[in-house]
Amino acid sequence: MMLCPRAVGENGQLLTDEWMELRNGCMCCSSKDAGVSAIEKLMEKKGRFDHVLLETAGLADPGPIAAMFWIDDDVESTLALDGILAVVDAQRCLQQLAQSPSTSTSAKGSSADVARPQAINEAVRQIALADRIILNKTDLVSPETLAQVLDAITIINSAATVIHAVRSVVPVDFVLRGTADFDPDMQAQRVAALESSLKHSLTHGGVHAPNADGTSASAFSGVSTVTLEFDASCPVLSLSNFHRWIQLLLWEQTLHVQFPQFATHVEEHDDQDCECTDHHHHGHGHGHSHSHEQHRAAPLVEQQPPMEILRSKGIIYQLDSPVQLTLQGVCETYDVQPGLPWRDSLTKATRLVIVGRYLNPTLLRQSFVAMCCTK
Ligand SMILES: Nc1nc2c(ncn2[C@@H]2O[C@H](COP(=O)(O)OP(=O)(O)OP(=O)(O)O)[C@@H](O)[C@H]2O)c(=O)[nH]1
Fold first, then answer.
1. Ranges for the CobW/HypB/UreG nucleotide-binding domain (predicted)?
2. Confidence band (pLDDT; 50, 70, 90) for 365?
3. What residue owns the CA closest to ligand 1's atom 28?
4. Which ranges of the chain does DSSP label H, i.e. alpha helix?
5. Rounded to an integer, what distance in angstroms lies between the CA atom of residue 75 and that of residue 2?
6. Ligand 1, atom 24: nearest CA belongs to which residue?
7. Which residue range(s) make up the domain with 49?
8. Rounded CA separation 28/121 (Å)
9. Cβ contacts of residue 6 below 8 Å, gap of 6+?
């Protein structure tokens, strides 16, 4: 894979354009250090960049590269991952989403896939991981096809911002917006981008029927989005509990085993146990009783596939904290960082977007409440 750093002048003109090829040819096959040091060398040689664009040409899964920026502290000190951009071909998208995954590429670098009988389709994976999507070649499809493509994108990843394009002509801000450096305004921009993505997911969340075991059904390798919102009455009481919850979800994949009472739940009624919502439900309730859980003929918890998370992000409200905490995660790698001060008490809320497969909204929501918001 090539790295292509471009320094952009104030008027948007390119000041430099340099290609660097990694010695063993491919960033995804390189050790993480090699990829990281390649960027560091470029930075040393050329000085500080405003933006670095990494094109994962020929690589189906951007996950391992995205995760690299949260693992290496040296890179994190000078670079931060702003976001993941995908270009979707409107003409071929539906066909690509329906293809069987190629085992040669989709499982590469993702330990989560190794033991899976069925890998996740590459096109699904790229849409699932993206923060921003350029929906290109819109001139070549009918309005009906375009609507179907948009529906598919929304079901897979309702948090991504989608822009329609012909020949990929989009404002440069759409590509570079929110690029982080340590300028406080840029951080504000990055948090604003995250907030808008969360808002987008809350209003555009796809609704699809849960399977008998409560997991979300979706045609696209089973990948879908769950958006969770917990208002100020449900603050995260301790950050270590949040870490424990997210680690059970991302690393151990045992939430369904830890909370079998929520894992077999089928969502049918507004029987919320907390002042919280997700994209299947918008009702509110009180108390923390779980006595009204709906049980249907559901497979034993042990037989359920664990939730497999591709992308996680959000803003967390920790009790009495004057600043937001931001969550960014790709596959099993995640990072929690302090964000901006809360603007006012009305805005205090935890909003999480989880993109992955075999998602169980009830299990996600109730386990979060039990582990993070309950003494
Ligand atoms: N009509 C139309 N043609 C386009 C558009 N975008 C690209 N093309 C044309 O489609 C052809 C193939 O271009 P792309 O699909 O962008 O090719 P590519 O990105 O190299 O393809 P992959 O990286 O292999 O997916 C070229 O002739 C482009 O000029 C578009 O929005 N509308």
1. 10-163
2. very high
3. 167
4. 32-46, 63-71, 73-78, 93-98, 103-106, 111-114, 122-129, 143-156, 172-176, 184-204, 239-247, 255-258, 260-263, 361-372
5. 18
6. 58
7. 1-57
8. 18
9. 14, 15, 16, 17, 51, 53
Give the per-residue pLDDT at 81.
75
- C-beta of residue 255 within 8 angstroms of C-beta of residue 248: yes
CB 137 less than 6 A from any atom of ligand 1: yes
Ligand 1 close to Cβ of residue 136 (< 6 A): yes
Instruction: Count up the domains in the chain and report the number.
Output: 2
Give yes or no for residue 166 CB within 6 A of ligand 1.
yes
The answer to pTM > 0.90 is no
| Whether residues 40 and 187 fall in one domain | no
Question: 330 - beta bridge partners?
Answer: 311, 333
Phi first, then psi, for residue 247 (nearest 5°) are -70, -35
Neighbours of 17 (CB within 10 A): 9
What pLDDT band is residue 298 in, cutting at 50, 70 and 90?
low
Is residue 141 in a domain? no
- ipTM score assigned to the predicted complex: 0.94
Rounded to whole angstroms, the Cα distance separating 275 from 229 reads 9
Residue 152 lies in a domain: no
Token pair recorded at residue 284: 């509110």
Q: What CATH number is associated with residue 190?
A: 3.30.1220.10
317 contacts 348 by C-beta, under 8 angstroms: yes
Q: What is the DSSP string of 149-192?
A: HHHHHHHH-TTSEEEE-STT---HHHHHTT---S-HHHHHHHHH
Residues in the chain: 375
Q: What is the CA radius of gyration of the chain?
A: 21
